[in-house]
Specification:
heterodimer, A: 561 residues, alpha+beta, 6-stranded antiparallel sheet, 49% helix, B: 125 residues, alpha/beta, 19% strand, globular
Chain lengths: 561, 125
């Protein structure tokens, strides 16, 4: 047995539902996940920043440790020099006695390269290491600084005037009783000694230490590299920063050997004027390895969590969506089945009832008695009504899309007049007077004649139904602002105010209407609205309960389109 | 007045069959009835009618197939076939036309008198 197909756009309902649900669910997931995300990312970032700061702090700390190894070394210089500067032998500039004393000191301490004393002009008159030739220290940084500041001062990289060895010296002024500077005492350090103690700082592998004087000349290097000591650092901004007013700090740069390093610098001896600096370079890769590892771990963790959350959300979504889809499919299937049922199954028997009655009323196979005819007529009216109801129901189920609409220029006045004629019988029964004002010369409207007829009939029948006996129903047609406006007014029961917005909903019947007339599906106005809008028109009403209702319909003129 | 022509009514609903039989015989036509596509084809092959009134939704084979067969068979190729349906689907109309139907009537929207009138008009041609 063939089954009727239906015209519904099957995919439409599903597609619309699909996009609606998907969109809402996506927004929901985003709303939940985003703040969480933001929190996590912020946390990771903070952790990273903190770790970085920790690394820098550690670098600085180690640098200070290195500096301390140096200052430990040179720490003894100041008290020594202060002490010897007060010696009589020194103040008296007794070269021989002084030298013997210094030589003895040198032997005992072991860390000094030389200890000596000079006049205000820089001539060396006293030296622990025996003078082989006269020596003058003017020009040497430690001497110039000591004489200029009158304080314990560090020198620069030098080649010792007496020892002839690359060394580093500290100086201290010799004062007479009046406090005038009469000369200076100095002590020199073998640069090798500097390098030697750096190793004790416990630096991580790959760390490089450069100790520089105030001019930027390298006085010590660890690990030792041939030929580097005595060279000046390039005149670069970072170097200038180091040698500037700051006592300590950090910076990142690529070293001369091409390795990216984190550098920290510190003064060796903050007490000394023009103290040398240690610049410690840490292998960045190694240093940040742990940091990177932590960061990577965090990011991977986040990615994993994200994946899990998304998966869960997706699964949840699928559940919601699938369930919804299935429900919709069920609804659609029921709807299709209903339409099929109503369309086919109901209509066939209804048609046969109508036809059989029609034949009987037509005297076939043989004429009826008047009484029989009356009954048959009544039966036919019911059957016709049933047919209409089924038709309306199917129409509504199809959303008004079932009927073929053939719009063209339609003479509205003619249609209205015809409908009024058709309802005369009903009007007569209720003794309701239909007043029609259908002026001549109204231009054709763009509409479908059949649908228009249905609409007008619906409005008129409603007006008649809900009018009291002996009432008047006015039907007017007019041209208003390039639109044709039909008005059907009655003095009937009206529509209660708070129910007015439901009037065009399908199956809706106002409470007072239901009271008056029990039967009725409440489809008429809904269908009328569907039809009118399909034809490009508009429909509306004004109503007051107990007074009456005016329904209006407006159509555009055919020639305007 | 219509000549005593014979029409074959193919309709599976008993009430409708009765209505149509009474209606057409009332206009002087001879009416042959078939309940299924198979019965229709057998009757048509045995004695080709002057017109076939063919319901679409009948037991095997369905209305369209019957139409195809009627058009394929030399004996019935030129017999007018009026398709009959409760529904008014555009695709059905199109298909009917393509398969060579003479007309398409929608039962639920017509009175029996209209049906008789339309069939009569075709027979007169």
């Amino acid at each position: 047995m063939g089954r009727p197909r239906n015209n519904l756009a099957k995919g439409t309902v599903r597609a619309r539902a699909r996009s609606g649900i998907r969109a809402k669910a996506s927004v929901l997931v985003l709303l939940i996940v985003l703040p969480l995300y933001a929190l996590i990312v912020l946390n990771i970032r903070n952790e990273y920043v903190q770790d970085r700061e920790d690394i820098f702090a550690e670098a600085s700390r180690l640098t200070r440790v290195v500096a301390k190894t140096q200052s430990d070394l040179t720490g003894s210089f100041q008290p020594l020099l202060v002490a010897v500067s007060r010696l009589e032998e020194v103040r008296a500039a007794d070269g021989a006695a002084c030298s013997a004393l210094f030589a003895d000191l040198l032997k005992r301490s072991g860390q000094y390269l030389n200890i000596g004393a000079v006049t205000a002009d820089g001539d060396v008159f006293c030296s622990a290491v025996p003078l082989t030739h006269p020596a003058n220290v003017s020009g040497l940084a430690w001497f110039e600084r000591t004489m200029a500041t009158g304080r314990f001062s560090a020198g620069d990289f030098e080649v010792g005037k007496v020892t002839g060895v690359r060394s580093f010296s500290f100086g201290y002024p010799v004062l007479d009783d009046d406090g005038t500077v009469t000369g200076a005492v100095y002590a020199s350090l073998d640069l090798g000694a500097l390098e030697g103690v750096i190793g004790s700082a416990g630096l991580p592998a790959g760390t490089v230490v450069n100790e520089v004087d105030r001019n930027g000349t390298i006085i010590a290097r660890y690990p030792a590299i041939e030929g580097l000591v005595g060279k000046r650092l390039p005149d670069e901004p970072v170097v200038r920063d180091v040698l500037g007013p700051l006592k300590e700090g950090t910076f990142t740069a690529t070293g001369l050997d091409g390795v990216a390093r984190l550098y920290a610098f510190a003064q060796v001896d903050p007490a000394a004027d023009s103290s040398p600096y240690v610049i410690v370079g840490f292998d960045r890769t190694m240093l940040f390895q742990q940091l990177r590892r932590t960061l990577t771990f965090n990011i991977l963790g986040l990615a994993a969590v994200t994946l899990i959350v998304l998966l869960m959300a997706y699964e949840g979504l699928k559940e919601v969506v699938i369930r919804r889809m299935e429900a919709l499919e069920d609804v659609e299937r029921l709807r299709n089945e209903f339409i099929s049922l109503a369309s086919h199954q109901l209509r066939t028997p209804i048609t046969s009832v109508r036809w059989l009655l029609e034949l009987l009323l037509g005297g076939k196979p043989s004429p009826l008695t008047p009484e029989q005819a009356e009954l048959a007529a009544e039966a036919k009216r019911s059957a016709d009504r049933l047919a209409r109801l089924v038709k309306d129901l199917v129409e509504v189920e199809k959303g008004g899309l079932g009927a073929d609409v053939a719009t063209g220029p339609v003479d509205a006045a003619a249609v209205v007049a015809s409908v009024i004629e058709g309802t005369r019988a009903v009007a007569l029964k209720k003794k309701v007077d239909i007043e029609a004002a259908l002026p001549e010369g109204i231009p054709p409207i763009k509409a479908d004649a059949v649908l228009l007829r249905e609409v007008v009939e619906n409005l008129l029948v409603n007006a008649l139904q809900y009018s009291p006996m002996h009432a008047t129903v006015k039907v007017t047609l007019a041209l208003r602002r390039r639109k044709v406006r039909l008005e059907v007014s009655d003095g009937g029961i009206g529509i209660p105010l708070r129910e007015q917005r439901h009037v065009f909903e399908r199956f809706y019947r106002a409470s007072n209407a239901r009271e008056l007339k029990g039967e009725g599906l409440g489809l008429g106005l809904h269908l009328s609205k569907l039809f009118v809008e399909r034809m490009g028109g508009m429909i509306g009403f004004v109503s007051k309960e107990g007074t009456g209702t005016t329904f209006w319909v407006e159509f555009p003129l055919a020639k305007d389109l | 007045m219509i000549d005593k022509k014979r029409i074959l009514v193919v309709e599976d609903n008993a009430s409708l069959r009765l209505s149509l039989k009474v209606a057409f015989e009332g206009t002087g036509l001879e009416v042959e009835l078939a309940e299924s596509g198979k019965e229709a084809l057998d009757l048509a092959a045995a004695r080709p009618p002057d017109l076939v009134l063919l319901d679409l939704f009948i037991p095997e084979p369905d209305g369209f197939r019957v139409l195809e067969h009627l058009r394929a068979d030399g004996r019935t190729r030129d017999v007018p076939v009026v398709i009959f349906s409760v529904l008014s689907q555009p695709e059905d109309r199109t298909k009917a036309k393509m398969l060579g139907a003479t007309d398409y009537l929608v039962k639920s929207e017509m009175s029996v008198a209209d049906v008789v009138e339309r069939v009569g008009a075709i027979l007169r041609k």
